[in-house]
Specification:
With 412 residues, the protein is of the alpha/beta class. Helix content is 43%, strand content 14%. It has 18 helices and twelve strands. The longest helix is centred in the middle third of the chain and has 19 residues.
Length: 412
């Protein structure tokens, strides 16, 4: 049975917390889940991605003063803002999936198994240049797919929905992709990308999965898992809790899968965090089955503005995510400011508006006695959060923070 609380409805401090009745730390890692994300898949992703020029593990930033302010023993913030110069963790997923897709298509064309080094080394330009990849995006995934296409030599078309900012559109186009703006919300752009690809003979490289489209998103998610592997490997003591922003759930599922396989029943408590204006994971946990939310999904957390949970992500989150929270845009902006303008000697961190729902969820939960009890949070808790993007919309970041990202970094 799920347990749910809602506080301060209609105010900037509002939140909802819902436990997941289907989840258990004792739940086994099933063969179906291992077919999505696995130790072998992680090893392959690690071997490929760590060989790309510019690879380096991103920082795991300790925030002791913020931990004391919020009321926990430790907060570690995995800062993905510098990943391959693309500004977000998405660089790990989209580009890796592009490379995997190209390897498969070139192998088919040549009638032999092509090594990944042949793709990354652009050894088959005649074949690769005739291939077009595409996807729908809120911004960061499309940038990663476009970068991967440019890096490995194929063509790329990216579909963005009505409310994606001009800054994000330009950032994608800078990697040589054709960018097409669609009517409607993110889920509408997903459908338009698939319909166009089917008609044109292109290949969709999406970070969400849906009936009839399951294989490529596994590669995207497997790339994301490298981020979790880096974070956990850098910690001397495992976290007791991990707070994760959701969107379609691919990143959250990748992190959850990693700790479920690594720690088993001793895994951390997993808390998912949805924007209140696009809370499809909350709706799904509440219903016990994937449940779409409709409307314009117009949250400031643009990278999380998704109305339908990924089918592959749900396969993992259903069994291994302990609770889900709904947080407001105001709470996200407050979390951005804590990171940009820290007190007590913490390192300043640039985190975009889609990077901080997990941190915001932790902060609001710690203010509420019932929420703390439901999640097992107290002054001894060690919390891991993932800062999944930097200032991927530089103009919006400056507007929200009242200063530039460069000035924040300069104060570090």
């Amino acid at each position: 049975m799920t347990t749910e609380i809602t506080r301060f409805a209609g105010t900037p401090e509002a939140f909802t917390l819902c436990t997941n009745a289907a989840a258990s730390k004792a739940a086994p890692w099933t063969p179906a889940q291992d077919a999505i994300l696995s130790d072998a898949g992680l090893a392959a992703a690690r071997e490929t991605i760590t060989g790309w020029p510019g690879y380096a593990p991103t920082p795991l930033v300790a925030l002791p003063a913020l931990a004391q302010r919020i009321g926990v023993a430790e907060i570690r913030f995995k800062d993905e803002g510098g990943r391959f110069g693309l500004g977000s963790f998405k660089a790990l997923g989209g580009a890796y999936a592009v490379a995997r897709l190209l390897r498969a298509k070139v192998s088919d064309a040549l009638g032999r198994d092509v090594g990944m080094e042949e793709i990354t080394g652009k050894q088959h330009p005649g074949i690769v240049s005739q291939i077009t990849v595409c996807c729908a995006t809120d911004g960061n995934h499309g940038r990663s797919v476009a970068w991967g296409a440019q890096t490995f030599g194929c063509a790329c078309v990216i579909f963005i929905h009505a409310t994606v900012s001009e800054g994000r559109r330009a950032a994608i186009a800078a990697y040589g992709a054709e960018v097409r703006r669609c009517k409607g919300n993110y889920d509408d752009s997903v459908r338009e990308a698939q319909e166009t690809a089917t008609r044109e003979g292109w290949f969709v490289v999406s970070d969400t999965s849906y009936p009839g489209y399951m294989e490529v998103p596994k590669d995207v998610m497997q790339g994301y898992e490298l981020m979790a592997d880096e974070a956990v490997s850098a910690m001397q003591t495992p976290p007791t809790h991990i707070f994760l922003q959701t969107g379609v759930g691919g990143m959250a599922a990748a992190v959850t899968a990693h700790v479920a396989r690594k720690f088993g029943a001793a895994r951390p408590t997993i808390v998912l965090c949805d924007p209140d204006r696009s809370a499809c994971v909350l709706a799904s946990i509440r219903a016990g089955t994937p449940t779409a939310v409709e409307g314009d999904l117009d949250t400031l957390m643009a990278g999380l503005a998704c109305g339908e949970v990924s089918a592959l992500a749900w396969e993992i989150l259903r069994d291994h995510a302990d609770a889900v929270m709904e947080v407001t845009d105001d709470e996200a902006v407050a979390a951005m400011k804590w990171l940009a303008f820290p007190t007590g000697g913490d390192t300043p961190v640039v985190a975009g508006e889609s990077a901080v729902a997990g941190l915001a969820g932790l902060a609001v939960a710690m203010k509420d006695a019932e929420a703390r009890a439901m999640l097992g949070l107290d002054a001894t808790s060690r919390v891991l959060v993932f800062g999944t993007e930097g200032d991927t919309d530089a103009a919006l970041y400056e507007q929200l923070m009242g200063t530039t990202a460069a000035q924040v970094r300069g104060a570090a």
